[in-house]
Specification:
This protein is of the alpha/beta class and 179 residues long. The chain has one domain (5-176): 3-Layer(aba) Sandwich (Rossmann fold), CATH 3.40.50. It is 27% helix and 22% strand. The protein has 4 helices and 6 strands. The protein has a 6-stranded mixed beta sheet with strand order 2-1-3-4-6-5, sandwiched between helices. β1 (44-49), α2 and β2 (64-69) form a beta-alpha-beta unit. The radius of gyration is 16 Å and the shape is globular. The N and C termini lie far apart (37 Å). 24% of the residues are buried.
Length: 179
C-alpha cells in the first residue's frame, strides 16, 4: 500500500461522514478511560501517531491539544514534545512493518490508546484481511502480549466502543506498568 496524497484524498471523500462519529466516540473513550475521576479535564496533550488526514485533531474538544504525525504528506505538527499525556494509534498498528520503529514513540507517554481490527476465524473471508495494507492481524490476547513486552498493561479494552458504525474493531487503553 502506498500512503500518498491520492490515498488520503480517497479517505476524505469516502469516510469523512463516519469519521466524525468515530472521533467523538474516541474522545469520550479517552476522557472516561483516563480522566473519569477528575471533575474538570483541561490541558491534555495528545500525540495522534499515524494521523492520516487529521480528523482526530480537527474534532478535538477544548480540553485537549493534539499534535499529529504521519508518514503521509497531509499537514501535521510533528513530534514536538518530550512527553504527552496519551499517544494514540487509531487504525495504525496493523500497517507498521516493524514495531521497533515505534519504540521511541511509546517512550513519550505513560498511556497508549488505539483501535485495531480484531482477527476472526476464517481470516481469508474477513473484510479486514488486506494483504499488503494490513501487515499484522491481532487477537486481543496477542495485542495485550505485545504491549506487555513494552511495559504496558491494559486499562480498558472493548470491541463495542466503535461498533457501530464499524465491526470487529478493538479499542483499548494501556497504561505503563504491570498489573
Amino acid at each position: 500500500m502506498i500512503y500518498n496524497l491520492e490515498y488520503y484524498e480517497k479517505m476524505l471523500r469516502e469516510y469523512s461522514a463516519t469519521a466524525k462519529q468515530i472521533c467523538d466516540v474516541r474522545w469520550r473513550f479517552l476522557k472516561d478511560g483516563i480522566y473519569a475521576s477528575k471533575r474538570q479535564v483541561k490541558d491534555v496533550t495528545i500525540l495522534d501517531y499515524g494521523s492520516g488526514v487529521g480528523w482526530f485533531r480537527a474534532w478535538r474538544p477544548a480540553w485537549a491539544t493534539v499534535w499529529s504525525y504521519d508518514i503521509g504528506k497531509y499537514p501535521q505538527t510533528g513530534l514536538q514534545l518530550r512527553l504527552y499525556d496519551v499517544v494514540c494509534f487509531w487504525d495504525v498498528l496493523e500497517h507498521i512493518p516493524d514495531f521497533k520503529a515505534i519504540e521511541p514513540v511509546l517512550a513519550l507517554s505513560n498511556h497508549v490508546a488505539l483501535s485495531i481490527p480484531m482477527a476472526k476465524e476464517g481470516l481469508l473471508d474477513w473484510k479486514h484481511f488486506k494483504p499488503g495494507e494490513h501487515l499484522h492481524y491481532f487477537t486481543e490476547e496477542s495485542l495485550v502480549a505485545l504491549f506487555h513486552e513494552y511495559g504496558f498493561a491494559p486499562v480498558v479494552t472493548s470491541t463495542e466502543i466503535e461498533c457501530p458504525p464499524r465491526e470487529d474493531i478493538l479499542t483499548a487503553l494501556f497504561k505503563r506498568g504491570r498489573e
